[in-house]
Write a structure and sequence with these properties.
Nucleotidyltransferase, domain 5; Gyrase A, domain 2; 27% strand; elongated
Length: 362
């Protein structure tokens, strides 16, 4: 299958799901009279329960279907009960083939599609020829579930649908229960025919398609208008950008002219930055060259002059270490070396000139 065919099939499946969802939602909020009938004998239906309005009653209502119509004319009471009602029919299990189907538990999320794909294998009919439904999944444990599939030929149910449609029913639901089903097992829904087509899936599908077409038309119109307006705005933006660039170029030319105060100030700042030593770099270099036995208790930096005060085992050695770097020069003691009676280490005070070198290597 081509990619385009897959996209087309996926689109139509999505339309069908939307239409079915809308029909289900609208039907949930719509209140209608319901008449329930049970097929006691083949093609013979009797009322099981009814909500047919005041004054009509249900009595011993029995109907027999022959060749797509009722065998006897409907009385006024029966016709009133059926017209505009939701007819729910519980038909005899002899009409259906019942098959159990074991599936993984995750298959419950898309059970309808799985059942449809298995109809050809489990029944004598294809999915298009069969009317079918499935029961509520039952848990088997170990991540498995089982459902009961009920299926029959659509032609088998066609006379029943035709007879009740002719009686003016609004919608017809056909259900079936397995022959040996437990009393608490719900009947399987086989089909639901929306006779009046007020909530028909095909009608809703067309409405969805028309709505999508209108939305697409509105979107295309909006895109065309946006493109036209956006093109004009882009042209104006480009013109403004050209004017700004022109003005900026003129300002730069005036700033780079000889004698411009702002240019002179910037040049002075750059020169000062390049000619002034960095305090942070000086501190980093000192941390690398001073021995681990040297402790600096005070450090002062003023302009390009550095003053250190601290304690070490060999104060003259510090002068040599500082002089050997390219970051300092003219290192000397600005105060005598002293020692305390209780400490044999030298108390030093060194002064040096900082050079404007921005390398982190001593």
């Amino acid at each position: 299958m081509k990619v385009t065919d897959k996209i087309r099939d996926g689109f139509w499946r999505w339309i069908d799901l939307v239409a079915e969802g809308l029909v289900a939602a609208l039907g949930h909020f719509r209140k209608e009279r319901t008449v329930c009938l049970v097929e006691a004998e083949l093609d013979s239906f009797a009322v099981s329960a009814a909500d047919i309005g005041a004054g009509t009653g249900s009595g011993d209502l029995k109907l027999r279907v022959e060749n797509g119509s009722f065998a006897t004319p409907l009385s006024a009471r029966v016709e009133t009960a059926l017209r505009g009602s939701r007819i729910e029919l519980l038909v005899r299990p002899e009409r259906f083939v019942f098959k159990p189907l074991e599936l993984p538990s995750r298959a419950a999320e898309f059970l309808d599609g799985v059942v449809r794909s298995q109809i050809d294998r489990l029944t004598p009919w294809s999915a298009d020829q069969a009317a079918f439904g499935s029961s509520t999944p039952a848990d088997l444990g170990s991540g498995r579930i089982v459902v009961t599939i009920a299926a029959t030929a659509k032609a088998m149910l066609a006379p029943i649908l035709q007879a009740f449609s002719g009686a003016g029913a609004r919608s017809i639901v056909i259900r079936a229960a397995p022959p040996m089903a437990s009393p608490d097992m719900a009947a399987i829904k086989i089909t639901e025919e929306n006779v009046t087509r007020v909530l028909d899936v095909n009608v809703v599908r067309r409405v969805v398609m028309i709505t999508l077409a209108c939305a697409l038309l509105v979107s295309l119109t909006a895109v065309m208008v946006s493109t036209f307006i956006g093109g004009n705005l882009q042209a104006r933006q480009d013109e403004l950008a050209r004017q700004i660039a022109k003005q900026r170029s003129a300002l730069l030319m005036s700033r780079h002219a000889a004698g411009d105060p702002k240019t002179l100030a910037e040049q002075a700042l750059i020169r000062r930055k390049n000619e002034s030593p960095s305090d942070v770099i000086a501190l980093e270099i000192l941390s690398k060259i001073l021995p681990d036995t040297t402790y600096v208790t005070e450090m002062h930096i003023e302009a390009n002059k550095l003053q250190l005060t601290g304690i070490t085992h060999d104060a003259p050695q510090l002068i040599r270490l500082i002089e050997q770097t390219k970051h300092f020069s003219q290192a000397t003691f600005f105060a005598p070396i002293t020692r305390s009676p209780s400490d044999s280490r030298d108390h030093f005070s060194i002064e040096a000139r900082m050079e404007p070198n921005f390398s982190l290597t001593p």
